[in-house]
Design a protein that fits this description.
Layout (H helix, E strand, L loop, with lengths): L2 H15 L10 H10 L2 E9 L5 E9 L3 E6 L6 E5 L2 E5 L8 E4 L6 H4 L11 E6 L3 E7 L8 E7 L4 E8 L5 E11 L10 H9 L1
Antiparallel strand pairs: 1-2, 1-11, 2-3, 3-4, 4-5, 5-6, 7-8, 8-9, 9-10, 10-11
């Protein structure tokens, strides 16, 4: 890992834990309730890929089933989910986005209409360090789709970070910065076809 990435991660970690309130381990019911009540949210994110590359951008969530990652320059790519699909827009490509069924990706765990982490075989690990609670979940019917490790703080409950592990074992970490819940987000922001038309012009 380069010194630059290490220094950025250290700064993010210090920001993340600054002023954190010590709390007991959150229950699966508390976490499920938090996610189900999280209808809309937006904020910044830092993404760390398995090869050590780092990107930043803005994230927008509109549950159920919709999410949008806008990557900052020099990437200027986008990842968007809606209509049961996850679309990856590569700014260098002219062939349109690469698409995947959303329910075959770990992100579906937090975007599902009803999040129930107490469902049998859905959670594979639950730990707490006194400040954060980390829960690792998977689709109990299709564990081969990968897993999602989520980090929450308490008082109040907030999602701070997740790590997606895909079907090949590749890990992608997303650290959320100043995620603000609530507020109106237009449906057009999550319209894959509209984004395709926009990029074609």
């Amino acid at each position: 890992m380069s010194k630059r990435i290490l220094s950025i991660l250290t700064a993010v970690a210090l920001t993340f834990y600054a002023g954190a309130v010590s709390a007991q381990q959150l229950s699966l019911a508390q976490i499920s309730n938090y996610l189900n009540q999280l209808q809309t949210a937006q904020g910044g994110f830092t993404q760390i890929n398995s090869d050590g590359t780092l990107f930043t951008g803005q994230i927008f969530i509109k549950r159920p089933g919709r999410i949008r990652f806008e990557y900052n320059a020099p990437s200027e790519s986008m990842v968007m989910a809606s209509g049961g699909q996850l679309a990856v827009f590569d700014a260098r490509s002219n062939t349109g986005p690469e698409r995947f069924p959303l329910n075959q990706t770990p992100l579906n765990i937090i975007l599902a209409p009803n999040v129930d982490l107490e469902r049998e075989s859905m959670v594979t690990n639950l730990v707490s360090d006194g400040t954060t609670t980390t829960v690792t979940a998977q689709d109990p019917d299709n564990p081969n789709y990968g897993s999602l490790q989520m980090v929450f703080t308490g008082n109040p409950v907030e999602l701070r970070q997740w790590v997606v592990t895909d079907e090949l074992g590749t890990e992608t970490t997303v650290i959320l910065n100043d995620l603000i819940a609530g507020g109106a987000l237009r449906d057009i922001m999550f319209n894959i076809q509209a984004e395709i038309r926009k990029r074609a012009n």
